Amino acid sequence: MAAARDLRAMEMAGDDDAVELAKRHLVQPWPYAGSVGNEARALIGEGDGIYITDVTGKRLIDGPAGMWCINVGHRREELARVMYDQAMMLSYNTPWYTMNAPSAELAKRIADHAPGDLSHTFFTTGGSSAVETALRFMQFYNNVRGRPEKKLILSRGGAYHGSTYLSASLNGRPRDRDWMDGADHLVVKLSSPDPFRRPKGMSIADFCDFLVDQFRDTVARVGPEKIGAFVGEPVQASGGVVVPPDGYLKRIREICRDNDILYVSDEVVTGFGRLGHVFASGDVFGIDPDMITFAKGVTSGYFPLGGVIISERLLQEMRRSNHPDAMFGHGLTYTSHPIGCAVALKNLDILEDSVLAHTREVAPYFQAQLKTLEDLPLVGEVRGMGLMGCVECVADRESKDPLQLDKDVGKRIDAHCHELGLLVRPLINMCVMSPPLIITREQIDDMVAILREGISRTMDDLRKEGVWQG
Questions:
Q1: pTM above 0.85, yes or no
Q2: Crossing angle of helices 338-350/77-89, nearest 10°?
Q3: Mean per-residue pLDDT for 384-408?
Q4: pLDDT the model gives residue 226
Q5: What's phi and psi for 66, nearest 5 deg?
Q6: What's the start-to-end Cα distance of the chain, in Å?
Q7: Is 132 in contact with 166 (CB distance < 8 Å)?
């Protein structure tokens, strides 16, 4: 403990240096042109359980769990020990012509949890590379089967699938693609499955029918012989925790199956416990995709790792093809990294032991407590599932318009909450919450109380500025 205190004292002494070094040398993700390469963001010193501590020593509830990923909480000694032990045994091996035992064992355990005939895993370094791998595999699969024209990808408004060139081309969130290029010729966009934004006067059941009809009509118009895959998150995470209408995903899955379109379920966020199960596709939504992508919670953020689980049927079809010499020319230096896979195995032990059951037990309370915030005039809707939640703020509940004069109201709420002891994930006019899965009911109460106060203070600010009257 004394050594840890001494280390933290050294870190605190260097905090000012870190800020200056960041401004001089560090390029942050998702920067604006006006501040790129000259920006320092909130400096975090340490984490413990569901809490993090910032540079001032303020203790904060980690509302976003890092980035949807610190599922078993910060400072798990057993995960740190696994990293050390594996590094001392084997720190790395080339995946091109060698392999390691942790990756083979992890692939087997993942297959045990996966729905349908998903049986084989290709490991990547994160979610973006997992989605990129799934899409490149789809292209390879159709080339081997003699269908080089079957390459188009169906995606949806509000979607987020990554930051690599091909995966980012699928994104459908506001502002993601305003200044960025993409493979637009390969992507066909569909409507967001957001019931809150459905046409006025339309029931949710009718909205589901509308979405399914649009999907079916799009397949017919574009031609199933040209469409290789549909990629969809079971719950659109960074799009604002959009939970689709009941039965929607099953009906889309059937259309894909009928038209030989590969269904790729993007579980980078929902996988490994966020909805109380290792995978939500089968256990929560009752679907059996052709591929599932995952990352984030697979190691609880302790090591960069992701992957794509592939249907046994697809692999058998390629093995039976007339092109046994066709090479899937895709791989990463850190594919099947032994340290990452070892950490994932221990993380899976922790999830299976108690965390998944705890998540299922506490999730209804989490959703009910968040829902109480709907009595605030600025809040248009609170929605979510499992330990995912979104508070969407609107200027007018009738029109459901976000604040036209303050598109960054989420950042205002986050600033107030930070002062009060809670880190929030602000998304334009939304606040997204996805705390570590080990959160207790008492800690949920604390989180919601701070969020209520942060929104209330923001309402006061907007009234004073004449931006909004409520």
A1: yes
A2: 150
A3: 81
A4: 98
A5: 75, -95
A6: 51
A7: yes
At CA 89, angle to CA 88 and CA 95, rounded to 5?
115
Q: How far apart are CA 1 and CA 215, in angstroms?
A: 58
Domains of the chain: 1-75+354-465 (3.90.1150.10), 78-350 (3.40.640.10)
Q: What's the chain's average pLDDT?
A: 94
Structure tokens at 56: 């001032």
Separation CA 420–CA 435 (nearest Å): 16
The structure tokens listed for 461 are 């600010």
Q: Would you list the DSSP string of 170-228?
A: T--STTTTSS----GGGEEEE----GGGSPTT--HHHHHHHHHHHHHHHHHHH-GGGEE
Residue 180: CB atoms within 10 A of its CB come to 12
335-361 burial by CB neighbour count: b if 16+ within 10 A, else e?
Answer: bbbbbbbbbbbbbbebbeeebbebbbe
**Helix, strand, coil share of the chain (percent; to 5):** 45, 15, 40
Least confident window among 6-20, 75-89, 205-219, 321-335: 6-20
